[in-house]
């Protein structure tokens, strides 16, 4: 994706909040590519939530740069999982890393589900894209 002029701060590099937006866009695209409809997920009473977001900056992204954003899902035991993004300029330099700790919220009970990996896997046509194969 290309850096747009309205994403820049007064120092003419990408505003910090935009890194999170790039990561969010990548994660949503990954979910869609796995064959999951977020609308259907929410309709079934579950909603993805971010519990923590960390950004580690490495190199500037500036206006006109092109950036590739990876999306890697990391599963463990319990109610949460991580999604890790590496934002890389086309010259190969890492611009930033964005990591989310996330969960799936039961929208009726307002509690995190016990096994989010199971819920994502059961809905995915291509679970490997979510590291669930």
From TrEMBL:
<dbReference type="Pfam" id="PF13279">
    <property type="entry name" value="4HBT_2"/>
</dbReference>
<dbReference type="InterPro" id="IPR029069">
    <property type="entry name" value="HotDog_dom_sf"/>
</dbReference>
<keyword id="KW-0378">Hydrolase</keyword>
<protein>
    <submittedName>
        <fullName>Acyl-CoA thioesterase</fullName>
        <ecNumber>3.1.2.-</ecNumber>
    </submittedName>
</protein>
<dbReference type="InterPro" id="IPR050563">
    <property type="entry name" value="4-hydroxybenzoyl-CoA_TE"/>
</dbReference>
<dbReference type="GO" id="GO:0016787">
    <property type="term" value="F:hydrolase activity"/>
</dbReference>
């Amino acid at each position: 994706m290309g850096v747009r002029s309205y994403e820049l701060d007064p120092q003419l590099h990408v505003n910090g909040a935009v890194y999170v937006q790039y990561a969010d866009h990548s994660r949503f695209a990954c979910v869609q590519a796995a064959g999951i409809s977020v609308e259907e997920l929410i309709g079934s009473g579950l909603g993805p939530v971010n519990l923590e977001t960390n950004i580690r900056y490495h190199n500037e992204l500036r206006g006109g740069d092109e950036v590739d954003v990876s999306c890697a899902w990391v599963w463990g035991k319990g109610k949460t999982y991580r999604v890790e993004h590496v934002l890389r300029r086309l010259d190969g330099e890492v611009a930033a890393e964005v990591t989310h700790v996330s969960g799936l919220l039961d929208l009726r009970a307002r509690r995190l589900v016990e096994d989010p990996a199971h819920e994502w896997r059961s809905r995915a046509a291509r679970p490997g894209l979510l590291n669930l194969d």
